[in-house]
Structure formats: structure tokens, C-alpha cells
Amino acid sequence: MPPSRTYPLKLIPPEKVAFSETNPRGESAEEIFKDETFERLKDSVFRFGVLVPIVVHEQKDNVQKPYRLVDGERRLRAALEAKIKRIPAHIAASEDPLDDLVQAVHIHMLRKQWSPVAQARALKRIKSQRQKSGPRMSEQDAAEDLQALTGCSDTKLKSLRRAARYSEAVLEAVEERQLAFSHLVQFEESFVEQIEKHYPDLLTRLGKKEVRESLVEKARQRVLTSSRALMDNVVPVISRAKSAEEKKCASQILEDFVTNLNMPAEEVLKQYDKKYPPAQEDLLHLCDDIVDSSEVLVAMLIGLRGNALAGFPKVRSRLVKSLDELHKEVAARLKSLRSTSK
To answer: Are the CB atoms for 107 and 23 separated by under 8 Å?
Structure first.
């Protein structure tokens, strides 16, 4: 719910507000002051004042700074620079530092301009603060706890959790466009998690940290040609390796892929195909399954009227996203099939 509907609004002196120890976006004061958009904000505040209220908590034990900032650091700094005497502020209730951080995240996640990297940083802070204030919990329990705290959808939270496993240096590289945010998600989903599930001894031997560093470096050097490269060339090898001999071969190729920074993902599938070419019979069975599943899916879609989900926006959003991903995959496979038939 928007803060204007939840918290009382007051005009308060900006110098009476203490800055939060953690900026939800992960920005330092120096980074804010260097940003060109902050200069424009200062000009706007000087001319028109603070138009969008900040959000603060009361802290009764501090006479000099009776308020602590939850949301609006840039507006507050701009007001101080412009020497504004009073600015609008919503006064929110607070119980502990975790409440402060979660409240700030809720507010910021409503803003489209808040980048996935900033959200991943905030999630790391929430997880860290949660661990300080509560008992240790399993990965699954921690995920459910974070979802309850942040209000994120399951799909979005999975992506943010995966990205949050990487260091600040890697997140900065994403911001500098040296690699894509989707790279981090795919590193985890299509490689680290797959290896952990199917080849845990290999991951233990190589080390998670070292595996992630290798993948990051391959992406930086454009050895990984796209964020889908792992999904298209590594996951199929893992799924096809069934016998002990096949798994031993796959494990060795995967180890070479991690340790050789010049080895592309395409080489993983190429080497495995050379040793264990896909059986023609398996491919024909796969095609039959695809045809059968397609016919079922078409029948299901016909039964879905255009306005059937008008009252269920979350379900509709999930369905649209799923169908969009399906459409992209189908289009790519159709293009490949048509080109090989010429």
C-alpha cells in the first residue's frame, strides 16, 4: 500500500533526519553526488521544493536527530544542499533495523527504475540482517522467509537470490555492462545448481567460488556468447549422461570447461556428441512427445478466453510470461528446423 495511505504526513526540518546506515540501492553518498541526475534533482528542489514526501521513522532516543530515514536519501540530500527549511515526510512505525530495511525495499520495488542489481543488493542486506536477528535456517526456509518479508513473486525472488550469491565486484560489473544480469541467473540455474545436483563431488573439488569466477570471466571475455549458452550446451549433456561411463565423460568435459577459460560452452556439447552421439531412436521419441504435448497445449489454450483472467492479475502475469518464453523457444526451434530442411 502506498505510504500516503498508511503513514501520517508532516513537514519536518531536513537537518533533523538521520541517514540510514544502508541505502537500499547500495549507493554511497559520493556516488549520489557524482550522479548527473542528482544535479537535476537539486535544481528542481531549489526551485519547487521536495514534491514527493520522504519516509522516516521516529527515534525518540535522539534529540538532535529525532527521525531516521527509510526512503528518500537523494531528496533529503538535495533539500539539505538547497537549504530547504521544511520538507514533507511520512512517519512510519518501526520495531527494529530489519523492519527499516524491508520497508525501504517494499517502497523501492514499486519503482520501475530500481535496477535488478539494486534489488539483489537489498536482498543480500535483508538476508544478512535476518541472520543477525534470528536463528540459522535452511536454504528453503530462508527462501520462504525472504519471500514473506519482501513480497516478491517466486520467480523474481529466485532470480534475485541467484544474483545475490555474487560479490559486489561482480554486481558492479553488471552495472558497468561488462556482463548481463541474466548471466548471473543462468550461471546458477544452468550450471552451478545443475553440477551441485548431479556432480556434487566435482563441485566440491573445483569449489563454488572458483566455478563462479570462471563463468564470470568467460562472460567478460565473451567466451560465453550469450546468457543462454549454458542452457543450450551444458544442460543437455548433463541430462543425457545416464550410465556411469557417460557421467564420467561428462564430468571430465565439465571440469575442462571450468578450468579452461578459453573453452566455450558450445565445445561441451560438441565433445560429448563426438563421444556419445544422440541416438536416432531417442530423437524420434522426443519428436513424438513434442507433437503430443503441442496438441494438448493447443487444446488447453483454445479453452482460455481472452477475458477469463480479468480478476486474477497475478495469474495472468505468470501465464503471459510463461507463454512469452515458450513463444521465443518455439520461434528459435522453428527457424533452426526450417533452415536445415532447405
So the answer is: no
- pTM exceeding 0.85: no
Within a 10 A sphere around the Cβ of 62, how many other Cβ atoms? Answer: 12
Q: Which residue has the cell 528459435?
A: 332
Residue in the block written with cell 525501504? 104
Q: What are the structural domain ranges in the chain?
A: 3-96+104-111, 181-275, 291-340
Quick check: helix, strand or coil at residue 306?
coil
Of residues 187 and 160, the one with the higher pLDDT is: 187
Question: Do 87 and 52 form a contact (C-beta atoms < 8 A)?
Answer: no
Separation CA 59–CA 141 (nearest Å): 32
Specify the pLDDT at position 112: 47
In CATH, what number does 3-96+104-111 get?
3.90.1530.30
Alpha-carbon distance of 153 to 334, in angstroms, equals 31
Strands (E), the chain: 9-12, 17-18, 54-58, 67-71, 87-92
**Residue 196 neighbours by CB distance under 10 Å:** 15
Residue 1: per-residue pLDDT: 35
